[in-house]
């Protein structure tokens, strides 16, 4: 019987089975992906899964986890960049529902560039940031509040109430990394604090994509890459967000001052 790792709290339910030379990444009843990280090969097996969900699983889960298993530094986060400055990319990290897409959309409306709202690759040698694709997936109330009720949306996947925002966004090239911001739930007050040392390292490391968490060599490669990034004076902040759309301007002002 194959070894199995399950991710708790994810929707849909997701688990990975370790085979002799490959992995099976399974998304509940929707999709099974046979993955060979070394060969960069993916075979999809699906029964009745709609094409929107398949594209979502491939771009937002399968490919990032495959690259992470190869030791690449791929993070569950959004990335926004101010064109006026080179090293001005904020990488927003946090659990699903923490506000990454909402903040990305609000900065986008202010004229910033969107690299991605959910998956970010960082080159530890050049500190250049790349996004998977410039897209937004948001709940309808966030879309209405940030982008307006006239915003065109499309169906994302049957298991989620999120909508995909239909925007014609340019695919951005690499941008310089400015800071990591880890979003966490808060009360009605905005709070931003600088993390240091092992706390900063562990906090960001927890947001890296991987297929098999107990693969020591892949984890060591990701840890080494992240250590190299942080050793180049890239700060890590924890940001407690207020539960109020009207407080977004205050949040954005505080985050701009971090750069």
Textual characterization of the structure:
By secondary structure, the chain is an alpha+beta fold. It has 2 domains: 3-69; 74-139 and 168-256, Phosphoenolpyruvate Carboxykinase, domain 3. It is built from 6 helices and 17 strands. It has helices spanning 51-69, 100-109, 140-146, 197-205, 216-230, 248-256; strands at 3-7, 14-18, 23-27, 31-36, 41-46, 74-75, 77-81, 89-93, 113-116, 120-123, 128-131, 137-138, 153-155, 163-165, 175-185, 191-195, 236-241. The strands form 3 sheets. Strands 6, 7, 8, 9, 10, 11, 15, 16 and 17 form a 9-stranded mixed sheet that branches. The protein has a 5-stranded antiparallel sheet with strand order 1-2-3-4-5, with helices on one face. Strands 12-14-13 form a 3-stranded antiparallel sheet. Strand 4 (31-36) and strand 5 (41-46) form a beta hairpin. The longest helix is centred in the first third of the chain and has 19 residues, at 51-69.
The total of beta strands comes to 17
CATH class of the largest domain equals Alpha Beta
Radius of gyration from CA coordinates: 18 Å
**How many individual domains?**
2
Measured between the Cα atoms of the first and last residue, the distance is: 50 Å
Helix run count: 6
Kindly state the mean pLDDT as a whole number?
89
Order of helices and strands: EEEEEHEEEHEEEEHEEEEHHEH
Largest sheet, strands/sense/barrel: 9 strands, mixed
- Which geometry do the CA atoms define? globular
CATH architecture of the largest domain: Alpha-Beta Complex
Uncertain runs are none
- Percentage of residues in DSSP E strands: 25-35%
**Which bin fits the share of residues in helices?**
25-40%
Q: By helix and strand content, what is the structural category?
A: alpha+beta
CATH fold-type name of the largest domain: Phosphoenolpyruvate Carboxykinase, domain 3
């Amino acid at each position: 019987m194959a070894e199995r790792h399950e991710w708790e709290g994810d929707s849909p339910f997701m688990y990975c089975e370790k085979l002799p030379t490959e992995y099976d990444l399974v998304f509940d009843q929707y999709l099974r992906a046979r993955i060979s990280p070394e060969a960069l090969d993916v075979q999809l097996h699906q029964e009745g899964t709609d094409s929107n969900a398949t594209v979502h699983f491939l771009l937002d889960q399968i490919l990032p986890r495959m690259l992470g298993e190869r030791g690449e530094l791929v993070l569950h986060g959004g990335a926004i960049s101010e064109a006026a400055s080179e090293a001005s990319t904020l990488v927003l990290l946090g659990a699903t529902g923490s506000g990454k897409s909402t903040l990305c959309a609000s900065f986008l409306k202010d004229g910033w560039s969107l690299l991605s709202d959910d998956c970010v690759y960082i080159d530890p040698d050049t500190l250049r940031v790349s996004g998977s694709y410039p897209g937004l997936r948001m709940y309808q109330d966030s879309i209405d509040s940030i982008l307006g009720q006239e915003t065109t949306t499309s169906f994302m996947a049957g298991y989620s109430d999120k909508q995909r925002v239909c925007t014609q966004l340019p695919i951005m090239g690499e941008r310089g990394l400015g800071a990591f911001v880890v979003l966490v739930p808060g009360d009605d007050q905005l709070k931003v604090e600088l993390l240091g040392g092992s706390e900063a390292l562990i906090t960001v490391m927890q947001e890296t994509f991987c297929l098999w968490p107990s693969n020591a060599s892949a984890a060591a490669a990701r840890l080494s890459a992240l250590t190299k990034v942080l050793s180049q004076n890239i700060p890590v902040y924890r940001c407690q967000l207020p539960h109020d759309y009207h407080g977004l301007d205050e949040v954005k002002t505080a985050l701009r001052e971090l750069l």
